[in-house]
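pasting input
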Amino acid sequence: MNFGFDDTTAELRARLLTFMDECVIPAEHAYEEQAAVSGWSPPPLIEDLKAEARKRGLWNLFLPGAEGAGLTNLQYAPLAEIMGRSPSIAATATNCAAPDTGNMELLAQFGSEWQRKEYLEPLLNGEIRSAFAMTEPDVASSDATNISTSIVRDGDEYVVNGRKWFITGAMNPNCKILIVMGKTDPEAPSHRQQSMILVPRGTPGLTIKRGMKVFGYDDATHGGHAEVVFEDVRVPADHLIGEEGGGFAIAQARLGPGRIHHCMRLIGAAERAVELMCRRALSRTTFGKTIAQQGVVQDWIAESRVRIEQLRLLVLKTAWLMDTVGNRGAHTEIQAIKIATPAAVEWILDKAIQVHGAGGLSQDFPLAGAWAGVRSLRFADGPDEVHKRSLAYRELKKYMD
Amino acid sequence: MNFGFDDTTAELRARLLTFMDECVIPAEHAYEEQAAVSGWSPPPLIEDLKAEARKRGLWNLFLPGAEGAGLTNLQYAPLAEIMGRSPSIAATATNCAAPDTGNMELLAQFGSEWQRKEYLEPLLNGEIRSAFAMTEPDVASSDATNISTSIVRDGDEYVVNGRKWFITGAMNPNCKILIVMGKTDPEAPSHRQQSMILVPRGTPGLTIKRGMKVFGYDDATHGGHAEVVFEDVRVPADHLIGEEGGGFAIAQARLGPGRIHHCMRLIGAAERAVELMCRRALSRTTFGKTIAQQGVVQDWIAESRVRIEQLRLLVLKTAWLMDTVGNRGAHTEIQAIKIATPAAVEWILDKAIQVHGAGGLSQDFPLAGAWAGVRSLRFADGPDEVHKRSLAYRELKKYMD
Amino acid sequence: MNFGFDDTTAELRARLLTFMDECVIPAEHAYEEQAAVSGWSPPPLIEDLKAEARKRGLWNLFLPGAEGAGLTNLQYAPLAEIMGRSPSIAATATNCAAPDTGNMELLAQFGSEWQRKEYLEPLLNGEIRSAFAMTEPDVASSDATNISTSIVRDGDEYVVNGRKWFITGAMNPNCKILIVMGKTDPEAPSHRQQSMILVPRGTPGLTIKRGMKVFGYDDATHGGHAEVVFEDVRVPADHLIGEEGGGFAIAQARLGPGRIHHCMRLIGAAERAVELMCRRALSRTTFGKTIAQQGVVQDWIAESRVRIEQLRLLVLKTAWLMDTVGNRGAHTEIQAIKIATPAAVEWILDKAIQVHGAGGLSQDFPLAGAWAGVRSLRFADGPDEVHKRSLAYRELKKYMD
Amino acid sequence: MNFGFDDTTAELRARLLTFMDECVIPAEHAYEEQAAVSGWSPPPLIEDLKAEARKRGLWNLFLPGAEGAGLTNLQYAPLAEIMGRSPSIAATATNCAAPDTGNMELLAQFGSEWQRKEYLEPLLNGEIRSAFAMTEPDVASSDATNISTSIVRDGDEYVVNGRKWFITGAMNPNCKILIVMGKTDPEAPSHRQQSMILVPRGTPGLTIKRGMKVFGYDDATHGGHAEVVFEDVRVPADHLIGEEGGGFAIAQARLGPGRIHHCMRLIGAAERAVELMCRRALSRTTFGKTIAQQGVVQDWIAESRVRIEQLRLLVLKTAWLMDTVGNRGAHTEIQAIKIATPAAVEWILDKAIQVHGAGGLSQDFPLAGAWAGVRSLRFADGPDEVHKRSLAYRELKKYMD
């Protein structure tokens, strides 16, 4: 057992930290200003940062294998944490932003040669963006068997009908391709009914209807969270990813690394919140004491530190398990980090906000926005409660005869 | 001891419930549609509702004495709860919306004849709106001695300089008057330094700078939360409310009833959230069961009910104490409801959101917006932590020799 | 609505407080010393206190009607709170101790003339003690249909077989009678299977086997918590209470007032804990400050006060509902106080212990013992979780068509 | 970074698990029976187990260096967890029980040759037991400068006067030596006032006065928690450990490894609690479902697993830091595990108790006793609140100029 970073990770951490200090953090203010007028597109300065990151060898770090940076999950995880300190900018600048990351992994692993050339390549080059269309407004989508969008074979084409929402990134005009989950065979066994298919933006019948808000945020810099309607949308049969009935298995495979990324970025956000909380507490005085001298605030700071240290180790161990025994062997841990991380980071952000007074709620600090993002992750890939139930069942099974 | 409503309250509750059912709830959808295009002004339909409410004798219910409906705090409190089910519309329609309510109380109690005629009357008639400018961006405003806005006598005028923010309602063009807290004498004993003064919108040097957001919301239907700058703003000396040095005492007097109103409206919001949570839980199915059959969801519903019942009684008792022994005798309870209510209602709204899935975060349900409002109340009149410390000190004092 | 005490209550409160100050609190030390050598019997000094309480008109206060003090639930509740400050002594001294209270109510309401003469009279006179035998070690007894003790008619007798545990009071040699719940007809509809029967101590086949501990406490001053075995125990048929199949209904009727008593006593214990916490915090110094000056401790004190105030009101309203609309109309509230009170008081006691340092865990303060008692109430009449589920079901039912 | 066990650890874990299965768990029942009659001495069967453990090479595993098993903290930690499944027996049988462990480390590191020969040797051989006398009843002992016991040089002797309590192990007649913390120079700088001295049991003036209870438990199998009085207790000057004024530094050095041991044993206890909770939940049925099918119980099980996984990693990392950068470099983590572990394990044990119903509170299951032990650790080496404050201060210091 060894808790130190290996040389590759240490070197990349240093390089990424330098990039953050030199390029990302200094760009935050201008980014917000551009965002105020850039509509559903990302602020233009992001393109320069992408070029710079690529030049510095900080590109596609998330992607294992020859197509990416070739890092293990355990090596990438500490880098994702660093990006989490300024997640809107850093992840996009390094081409490590969701949902493209999961979509690139998926295409690298399951895409046909044609699909990889047409969509994976420009994604790897940061030329286009993509979306992943799973959640539906009309059913509890945490149960994949509820999914009602249909994908029906008709000659050389598939016809897609259905309604999806909270499709992150799809409001961005540069989002060129949607990966859509639907049912090809409602009569098959429950985990063989679903398939995934590529639907290019602009296909007739596809309507990007509106941006869903998360609390009051439209998250336009990430391309928002779209409601999308599919009305007799026809795509050639070669747009199906993998085989018919393979959708559920592909969705499962897509989950693991994404959880690591999300959780590590949240930990980075939590670290930044603790820093902001400390600085603010030291700088404000009430009733003759700095806020930092208030016992309750000290309690929050200590609790935050204690929780972050535990979370980070669990996420790193999960990454190590995925690298050494695979997603299946890391099943409990992958669920555990999904349960533990958003809840803890939400608590930390709440306390950081409280230390900032009313300003903490506003656009003048990154805390309320980060909070809304974390809160929404308590639903990502199904609400926490579904994951807890499944984890408990596995624990109980050890003692069933 | 008796936990039943008196006849006046019972009659008004019935009348108000009818108004909610017949006029308010049916208007919610159109209100949102108008809000999308009405900028910082309230949706126009509110004027019809105001006329209707007034016709039905549901007007200025919050205000004791001859100028208002003449109700006690204990009689008004259950009405505020009912308004809380649709707070944006119902409180405004009945001319019972903050911050006007506190401002009208203040003017009724401390205003000169001239001030009452000029500002209280149109407020009582619902013709204009008002704001209360206390919180400052540069200091921890929960400690009133920190306030740095200056109000300096210069001949027949006062000159106001300073910066305020989170001034609710001040973005609304119909907000005609601001009540501003500042220091007239920084050398006086700490609670005699502050005064309150009326500053009409449009006075030279007064800039309504921008709307502060709360978790992404601009709250434009309430007139937003403005940042306001005072640069050598001159008003005639008769605009001072009460006497020089009386600002702290007036602020204290203003607090009690407002807390009752806020807390009861939050309880109304919580009741609506429980209703939405139950209806949703009954209507969605995952893994072969309705969400209502999930034990964890049942636990949330039960906890919500248990917490609401306790909160309501504490707020009602506080109202009764204010009516019978006055604000000073109800000091502990007034702080207790401020500590307990937002925390509990925030928890209930969070669970209602969770039951709604991602939709609960969005503009399609009133839950996320209500949550942001409740969260911001953990800062109103000072953060919870300040109130807890003060309450604890009073408890400890019982045992000091 | 009115939150003041009526005259009867106010007078009895004053009288009882005097008794506490003059007789109960001063006896606590000697009580503990006698308890150390009195085995399963109560400390002898309790008999003098009983005589004194009776002389002062503080006797059977819990019992409505002519046989008792004739108080309503709402009138008795504040008296139970006062007793809760020193519950072992005060409740017994005034003949208001569980389980006798519930048993007396039960016999007053459902006992035959013979049963009342033989057992209710000496109980009312404080001459004997009694026990209530419901919980069984081998089944989840919160589901009454699980009860496996059998009561079988055989000619003029009933024959009882089964095993019970946590039968409070039964280790006390002066506990002369057990009220036993068992099944007379396992084939009847589920709520008509059970009956209750009187089993005198000393009946052949009845073995009082051992005292169950609660944490490390044997609770000998209350007569412990016995495991009791019934092996072909025969009692005359007239020992059945009410009718065959009436056991479940009698058990339900017994619940309401007992909940009020328990919860109010817990609130009294919580008030005493807050007092001890404050006094201790003021008297100890670490790192140059009293513990009372620590922000975290102030937070605990404030939270304790806020929770107590809410709980008390809910319990009092529940008592009022029982008096005005009966147990059935107060169903939600009766469950709510059972859910809320032990949880909150447990939290308060935990904090009071923490302020006392290691001593708080020990026999030198009443806190750890009180904590264990409260913790055990999270199981009384079924675990909290069962009550929450049932309460949630009632809430959901409002919205089912 | 690597989360696997090294070969030494893996081999010792296997060997210890075998010993647990073959010797410790099967002895639990007899151990409890002997404990009921063995007074303040440990149950006699422990001597056989000690011999067996020694034979199996499972002896003094906690002690680094040649005198012990030579393991690092990181290697020993997983073994302590295994012992924690049956802590009373396993730690004592392997001569790895507190407070001897800390005392042996202390003597190995700071003891003179004479002290090591006289006391360390028989301790290493498991022939005698020892105690560590720090906490005092009259002061808040978490602040070491409060300690009031005096150690005064008088010719060739030191004279000790003072009162200590919660001196674990000192009721055991086989506890032959006490290490006592007191002040040799109240005028010295605050961290140079204290010294440690050896006081043999039986020295005139030393009175082992009584056993303090912890939630009703006397913990007699560990030798209880004594109150000890020192009245002019004289010991030769060579009984001083290290130098005069070195007491604080020695106490600090003693802390680190002990924290690892305690925390890992608690994690072992938590694992056993989860196992018991699952088994019970699967075996009991209410209202037509097993308790394991209740959503709330599943939530507890999942939360328990999630918390345990995080805690364990943090404790292991702390051990690794102690091994690689020393106690000082691990300061934050050593405090973090002390804050996080007892709180989380207490929660888990509470839930396991709740699943067991009333039986969970009693002597029939190991849960309530374990709970009391964990609760008392929230005070060990100072209450959590002191550690949080100190940790927060270190965090804040990063941002102070």
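fyi The mean pLDDT of chain A is 96.
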